[in-house]
Amino acid sequence: MPQAPVLSIDAFGGDNSPEIVIEGIEHFLTAHDHSGNVKFILHGDSEKLRPLLERAPLTDAYSTIQHTDTAIDMETKPSQALRRGKGTSMWNTIESVKKGEAILAVSAGNTGALMAMSKLQLRMKAGVQRPAIAASWPRVEGMCVVLDVGANIECDAAQLTEFAVLGEAYFRAIYNKESPTVGLLNVGTEDLKGNAVIKAAHQRLFESELDINYIGYVEGNDIAMGTADVIVTDGFTGNIALKTAEGTAKLVGSFLSEALQGSAWSKFTSFLNMRALKKMKTSIDPRNANGGVFLGLNGIVVKSHGGTDAIGFSNALNIALGLAESDFLEQIEETLLRLHDEDDNIGFIA
Amino acid sequence: MPQAPVLSIDAFGGDNSPEIVIEGIEHFLTAHDHSGNVKFILHGDSEKLRPLLERAPLTDAYSTIQHTDTAIDMETKPSQALRRGKGTSMWNTIESVKKGEAILAVSAGNTGALMAMSKLQLRMKAGVQRPAIAASWPRVEGMCVVLDVGANIECDAAQLTEFAVLGEAYFRAIYNKESPTVGLLNVGTEDLKGNAVIKAAHQRLFESELDINYIGYVEGNDIAMGTADVIVTDGFTGNIALKTAEGTAKLVGSFLSEALQGSAWSKFTSFLNMRALKKMKTSIDPRNANGGVFLGLNGIVVKSHGGTDAIGFSNALNIALGLAESDFLEQIEETLLRLHDEDDNIGFIA
Q1: Residue A129: its pLDDT value, please?
Q2: Gap between the Cα atoms of B308 and B287, Å rounded
Q3: What percent of chain B has pLDDT over 70?
Q4: Up-side HSE of residue A228: CA atoms within 13 Å toward CB?
Q5: What is the pLDDT of residue B22?
Q6: Of A220, A243, A277, the CB nearest to B247
């Protein structure tokens, strides 16, 4: 029997930690019956964690605590986190991966600090400049993956090409699809659209002999419509697109509630139809898409939304376990090597 | 009694012209009882228009036809449109504004061609580099305005500052709000977020002594949440945000339909609750936000979505009439002059 993968958990990261972290793990173990398939190292203050574990018997059974009484708060700047962060729950969470005690790290803490510490401790894959953050995005059928959603505010064409490689391997790993389609986000699908960086990345991807199923430019509406499995963009555009979609889904949800609660009759008929409406609410629940992944490091770091609840945190663990059970890191290692060889051969400078 | 404003209409622009254009005007006149408050010049083939006007008596009563038998199609490139476009229905629609026969132009035709012809014929306001396209965007209460949504793929800080001035005056003109709030779209609200262009525009807007109610950075989710009345961004980001929101609204709508039609029981209870669900559908109907406006020209050009229907076209006319009845052009003239004076005084180079 293969050994159960070990996930390293920052129990003191995020707005409502450590409570939602422990409840999230318990929910994950209960709902998906993962007991025995996965183990956890919980980083944080053991005195505060013990009483929580008493109410979370499955988590208690499959976890060990590595004590530390310091943590990074949401306001700490990345530079401060690097100077003073050693020994905090976040630092130790990543260190467990570096030491080989765990296969990947999960934190709902401060994104900038997590990114800086991950880079410092795990280092980038050879040739990769900065990690990209990949987000899962609901679409008509299942999920797609969008990257970068915020790590790289300005990107060159070489980075966008790397994102395509990283995102493609990531999608394959978590959704088990042989040859996922990859699109480049642009303001139109004609060749003459976009800026110089996007055009260069477009040409590079088209000419590449890597086995990437590149389908060309896609537009904003294509994300939710499911035109491509993986959508590549710079971190500025990706972050704004992601938050715009979240805002839109929230707006539509509030219009729906308003419409259904407008009159006593509406309330009554909505009550009769509660199951269908619940199903719909689940489809657009942002908690189901929780869990951004830092790609391009020598190790895997999963970032949960800081303000999520136990169900959201449990979803981030779902993504984490999918990655832990795949050969994602070996696959991208190999593809990135081939990409950079190709770059050298064609003298590609973005 | 003041004279009724005259709108110049490209009757042969858009996917389903001239039918939806004539039906759209008729719907506009019927639904809003604008008969007598507005007149139209219809540009296009009179032989094809006459039978349509027989079925649209109000449109017939308040319109005159200016005949031309050529039109710009959706595939024509802007450069071709400039070389060969003279005398087409689109060209003549803009020319009517230039000649002073009409107060503004409305077309559902090819955006690139309309932009190029508008610039050539109407010219930019002094100091403005390129027009911006402003879009109306549904939010929790009413609408907000986002610009640019696609005319300027790359923008400098001076342009973003101009967009703030143009958008603020536009919002005041169509929604009659004294001091609308203006936000700059970014990946976070902290001062250190964003790229150099955005930071420069942010500082410029904060230090300006123009009467702009600038509230600082806003994020993607703030658009639909209604944090600001006017949201300023470059045309690349704005276009992707707009289409991402459209895709998300469509996705949520399809989840809703699916949920409500899942079982006979769902269908039955949805039927009972049809009025509430219809109200909700109206709230997110993209036709209600139809009508982008080119800002920064010596004249007003309203661009309807090319694939819209009569109701969508009628909504573009709503926006057009709101502008025609306001003193928008005089207002921005004055504010732009003061902006550029201020730029000169502080030696602002983006």
Answers
A1: 81
A2: 7
A3: 90
A4: 27
A5: 97
A6: A220
Q: Which of A94-103, A165-174, B212-221, B330-339 has the lowest mean pLDDT?
A: B330-339
Chain A residues touching residue B273 (CB < 8 angstroms) = 260, 265-266, 269-270, 273
Q: Which regions of chain A are under pLDDT 50?
A: 1
What's the number of domains chain B is made of? 2
Which residue, of B62, B88, B122, is where some domain finishes?
B122
Phi, psi (rounded to 5 degrees) for A249: -60, -40
B282 with B148, same domain?
Answer: yes
- Which chain A residue's Cα is nearest to B265? A273
Average pLDDT, chain B: 89
Question: What is the C-alpha to C-alpha distance for residues A341 and B80, in angstroms, rounded to an integer?
Answer: 42
- Helix (H) or strand (E) run with residue B239 in it: helix B235-260
- Residue of B154, B198, B248, B250 to mutate, interface with A, max A Cβ within 10 Å: B248
Sheet holding B300-303, edge to edge: B63-67, B39-44, B6-10, B104-107, B300-303, B292-295, B132-138, B143-147, B230-232, B181-185, B213-218
Interface test mutation site (partner B, options A251, A261, A265, A281, max chain B beta carbons within 10 A): A251
Element (H, E) at A59: helix A57-62
Neighbours of A101 (CB within 10 A): 13
Residue B305 within a domain: no
Taking residues B99-120, report their average pLDDT.
Answer: 94
B61 with B190, same domain?
Answer: no
Q: Does A253 touch chain B (CB under 8 A)?
A: yes
- Percent of residues, chain B, with pLDDT higher than 90: 61
Summarised one tens digit per residue, pLDDT across range B165-174 is 999 999 998 8
CATH number reported for the structural domain that contains residue B116 in this entry: 3.40.718.10
Tell whether B154 and B71 lie within a shared domain: no
Residue B283 contacts A where some CB pair is shorter than 8 Å: yes
The answer, yes or no, to whether residue B283 has pLDDT greater than 70, is: no
Distance to chain A for B186, nearest Cα, Å:
7
- 3-class SS at A100? coil
The answer to whether A224 faces chain B, any CB pair under 8 Å, is yes
Backbone angles phi, psi at A216, to 5 degrees: 95, -155
**What's the confidence (pLDDT) of residue B299?**
93
Contacts of B220 in chain A (CB under 8 A): 239-247
Asked if B99 and B189 sit in the same domain, the reply is no
Q: Of B122, B146, B171, which one is at a domain's C-terminal end? A: B122
B129 touches chain A (CB under 8 A): no
Q: Are residues B99 and B155 in the same domain?
A: no
